User: What shape does this take?
Amino acid sequence: MAGTKRHLLAVPELIARKREGNRLSDKDIQALIAGFMNGSVADYQMSALAMAIYFRGLDFDETVAMTLAMRDSGTVLSLDELDAPKVDKHSTGGVGDKVSICLAPIVAACGVTVPMMSGRGLGHTGGTLDKLEAIPGFRVDLSVREFRAQLRKIGCALIGQTGDLAPADKRLYALRDVTGTVESIPLITSSILSKKLAEGIDALVLDVKVGRGAFMKTEPDARDLARSLVRVGTLAGKRVSALLTDMNSPIGYTIGNALETSEALEILHGEGPDDLRHLTYELAVEMLRAAGIAQTKARALRRVELAVSSGDALQKMRQIVGAQGGDPAVVDAPDRLALARRRSTIRATKAGYVTELDPLELGHTSMSLGAGRSRSEDAVDWGAGIRLRVKRGDEVREGDPLATLYASRSALLEPAADRAASAIRIAKRRPAPRDRIIATIRR
Ligand code: URA
Assistant: This one.
């Protein structure tokens, strides 16, 4: 306690020390986070520290200290009573990223316990919780008791972050969001891992996105983030690996909550877009390997394919949806999910090949239709969004449909149509194909 007090008195000096590019000790960092939580470090001081870290960085040991201090700011769950290996997946956020919704039941059907805690959409990227809530009745706010009971019974639960898991991150992220300090590798590392390390998992697979629709715009930056997450997570005692994946075009054909959930459910039926299936299976394979259930990639992939072709993954999803209060009939008939009534189709103004489907612009367009939120208290329209009718590399003729927009109010359609049209580029030459999976990063 005396140590904490001594450190708290030195907050301006600690900020200045980091501003000058010097190291903070483990104790400094613990005291800063403890002070932030008890109110003796003010929000403006924490914001100034975040800006100093943004410019000066944190070294590996400082990042570990920051991660652990934030993890320990709230409850650290233990799921040790569950025998099966417990593995979660976290994506750094993309457009059309509905992977968690099909991935979790597939991996759970392979015998892994999947305690999946997801977030809401903010900015141009959607959030898994909003997509799940497009299923009538589906509850993402299970109590810790309900969460444990469901994991024991079904082996999978899809929920939101409980309030007392890494609360320091929640508060710090809110400050970073409004002070231009989000895009910092050590701050992103400690933010993501503090929450995931508090979840009671054995292993974590990360999907680190790179490209125009991602936080990390360049491959070197995304690799640095992936390496940082893997190293810090491993030091904290978890098996952590990362896939580096391309986010220069949306995943699948849909953007928006009900549209995306419906497409994710198609994967469980053995249907749906190839790129979504490919990414989901690659992440599932990595999760099975992290769980120690399959030693080779080929075996893991066979297991994943069998989970889908046998109907086990579909059955797992029926159980999850039923247990969380949703209508399980939706799992068998994804087209029952309600879509917004006002629609508009944009068409190609010339013949050629689709060379670009700008995910950032399409994400913002989907938001403007009502599918996303710009402030955390905004409501989302589950039925709004975009159904792309083409993929990058497709050949189109003049007048062919490129995308259909969905909104609840006609007035939203026209400006969105202009924006979506400018996000889809057509040229004479077919573009070179791009692989969705760029690299796998393990320790
Ligand atoms: N996601 C998080 O949870 N935290 C960050 O800092 C960035 C993305």
